[in-house]
Amino acid sequence: MSLAIWWIRRDLRLSDNTALSAALTNAEQVIPLFILDPRLEHSRFVGQKRFAFLFEGLQSLHQELMRKGSRLIYRQGDPRQVLIQVMQECGADQIYAEADHSPFARRRDEGVGKELPLKLLGSPAIHPPGSVLKPDGNPYTVFTPFSRACRELPIRGTPNNNPPLVQISTPLDIPSQAIPQGSPRNSLSNFPAGEAEAQRRLEAFTRGISAPIEAYAEVRNQLDQEGTSRLSPYLRFGMLSPRQAALAALTAVQTAIDAETRRGAETWLNELIWRDFYIHILHHFPHVRQRNFRLEGVRWENDPVSFEAWCQGRTGYPVVDAAMRQLVQTGWMHNRARMIAASFLSKDLLIDWRWGEQWFMQHLVDGDPAANNGGWQWTAGTGTDAAPYFRIFNPTTQSIKHDPRGDFIRSYLPELVAVPTEFIHEPVKMPVALQQKTGCAPGKDYPYPIIDHAWARERALAVYSQAKNQD
C-alpha cells in the first residue's frame, strides 16, 4: 500500500486543498501531520493570540478528521527530523504540502526537499508567485498593473469542496502529541477558529447576510461599523482557500443586482489581489523583511518613550489610542485604523516602521509576514507601491471622517466615554467646566498629545524629502 504524508502548514482545511487532493490522488492512504517548529515559537515576531487561534484551528481540524474516521498527528520539533521519523513509523514514501513563500518557509522547504520526497503544490495566494509577471518576465512592483494582469488571468482549477476522504486514515500505532490549548486570556471570542466558521463567514458576507458585500465599498473604511468580511485570520491559516474567496467575489460581481453591489464585490476582490501582491513582492524581493524597498536614507528618530506610548495607546490622539488598544485586547485591528496608527508612528513620530511591524506581528491574529510588511512599507512611504512620502495622515481629520460619532473611540477608551461628540476627537480642547463634568481632564485622566501633528508633519516632509534626494 502506498502511503503519503499530508504535511499541513498554512492550509488547515479539507475543502479546496490542492496538496491534500494530490495526496489523495497519488496514494492509497494519507496521514495528516502538523509540525510545530520551535524556531517559530521563539521568533521575535511570535504572537500568542495567533498561536491560540492556530491551536484552536488544529483542534477543529482534528475533530473533523475524527468524524471521518481519522485523526491529526501533531508533533513538535525540527520538521526534517519529524518527517523522517513519521515516514519510518508509517512507511510513507511521499510528502505533499502547500507551497509557502516567506524567506523562512522557502529555506525550510529547500532543506527538507534535498533529503525527502517533498512535493509542493498550491499556494496561499490566488495566483502563485511567478505566474503574474510583466511581458519582459520581471515581477510587478506597482499594484495597479499587477491587479490588471491578475484580473486577466483565469483562476486555475475548480474548488473541490467535497473531496473523497476515505483514504485519510491514521494508524493507531502512530503516536501524536497533545495539541496545545490556547490559554483563556488569549481566547478570541471574535474569531472562532476552524474551516466551518470560515465557510459560514464567507457565505454570510458574500450573500449579504451580515456585513454585506454590497455595502463594502461604502463602509469598509468606517471604524464604527461592521463593514468588512473579518476573514483575514482564516485566509492567514488557510482555513479558507484564497481561490474560493476570489471565486466568491467574482460570482458576486457577475450576479450583482445593481451598481452598488457590483462595486462592493469588485472592491473586495481588489483587496484580495492586494493580498496576492504582497505575497508576490515578498517572494521576489525577500530583503523587504529587513530593509526598505526604497528611501533607505530616512533618518528615524526612534524615541523609545514615544514608542512605548504608541504601543500602550497613550499618545493623546484618541483614534490612534483606540486602534492600539483594540489590537492588544482583541488581536485584530480595522484596516483603516492600521493605516492611521502606522502613519502616526512612522511619519508623526519618525519611528522606524520595523518597530511597528514587529509589534503588530506580536499581537495580530491575522499577522502575516507578507501583508503586514507590505502594509507597513506602503504607509511609511518606503515600499514598492508606497503611498507618496508627503501623504501623512492627520489623525484628527481621519477620526472625524471614519468615526464621526466617536463610537469606535469610546469602545476602547473608557476614560472618554462621557466626552461629548464635539470633543471626542480632540478632548484636549474641552473647556475646564466640561472636563470636570465628564471626569476627563487632559493630562490627568487622558494624556495630552505627545506631539503636535502640524509640526510633526513639517518635520517628516523635510526628512523624507532629504531621503528622496539621496535615493
Q: Mind telling me the CATH superfamily name of the largest domain?
A: DNA Cyclobutane Dipyrimidine Photolyase, subunit A, domain 3
Mean pLDDT, all residues:
93
By DSSP (H or I, 4+ residues per run), the number of helices equals 21
Number of domains: 3
CATH topology of the largest domain: DNA Cyclobutane Dipyrimidine Photolyase, subunit A, domain 3
**Distance N to C terminus:** 60 Å
Proportion of residues in extended strands: 5-15%
The multimeric state of the shown protein is: single chain
Q: What fraction, in percent, of the residue positions are helical?
A: 40-55%
Assign the structural class, choosing from mainly alpha, mainly beta, alpha/beta, alpha+beta, or little secondary structure: mainly alpha
Order of helices and strands: EHEHHEHEHEHHHHHHHHHHHHHHHH
Describe the biggest sheet? 5 strands, parallel
* Poorly predicted spans: none
Structure in a nutshell:
With 471 residues, the chain is mainly alpha-helical. It has 21 helices and five strands.
Description:
- With 471 residues, this protein is mainly alpha-helical.
- The chain has 3 domains: 3-122, 3-Layer(aba) Sandwich (Rossmann fold); 124-158 and 196-284, Serine Threonine Protein Phosphatase 5, Tetratricopeptide repeat; 304-470, DNA Cyclobutane Dipyrimidine Photolyase, subunit A, domain 3 (Orthogonal Bundle).
- The protein has helices at 18-26, 38-41, 48-67, 79-90, 103-115, 143-152, 195-206, 216-219, 232-236, 242-254, 259-284, 304-312, 318-330, 335-348, 353-361, 369-380, 395-402, 407-412, 421-424, 432-438, 453-470, and strands at 3-8, 29-36, 73-76, 94-98, 118-121.
- Strands 3-2-1-4-5 form a 5-stranded parallel β-sheet, with helices on both faces.
- Helix 1 (18-26) links the parallel strand 1 (3-8) and strand 2 (29-36).
- The longest helix is centred in the middle third of the chain and has 26 residues, at 259-284.
- The radius of gyration is 24 Å and the shape is globular.
